[in-house]
Design brief:
Length: 197
Amino acid sequence: MYRATAAAVLALLLTAFPVHAQELVPEGEMQMDPELMETQQRLQQLQEQLSQIQQETFEGSDELQQQQQALEDRATAKMEDLGYNPQSHYDRMEEIYDRFESGELEMDEQQRLAEEFQQEQMELQQAHQEAMQDEEFRQSMEQDMQDFQQNLLAAMQEHNPETESMIQELQELQAQLQQRMEQQHGGGMAPEGGMLD
């Protein structure tokens, strides 16, 4: 279960990695400002590169996969205790992923399955969020997730030495965009947060 489901679980575990650049700049404003568009494009390029490094690093590391599996097993057990059936979501997402991999889908079928995949992921995320409302469980999981994230980033840096500089550039570009959006909207309009502490 290290394909679609691993990607989904990683998305849950690393919700801030990477921040989606398109959330920072409304499309209309980006089209009116070539400099904004250029920054946006560079952000998306960096995100794609980092995502690729993350995927290659994860898939090439048995240790990371085992650590992720342990986190997934704990989260699954907690969600089951709350009455959810996360395995059914994992299984269906895997089926949809396999269908896409086959390359035999018509466009309307692709759209339908993409929406179903997103729905499965949303329901899984809802169950995950409810599980994290348990304070003791949340604190324990957050510490283990932080350890996993640090191990993943260290492994990414080893896999590709440019990872750190790419993350730094991404954070700087996000800060620049956020500052410009705050200036244009009188402050307080840009979303909070960033990539990593």
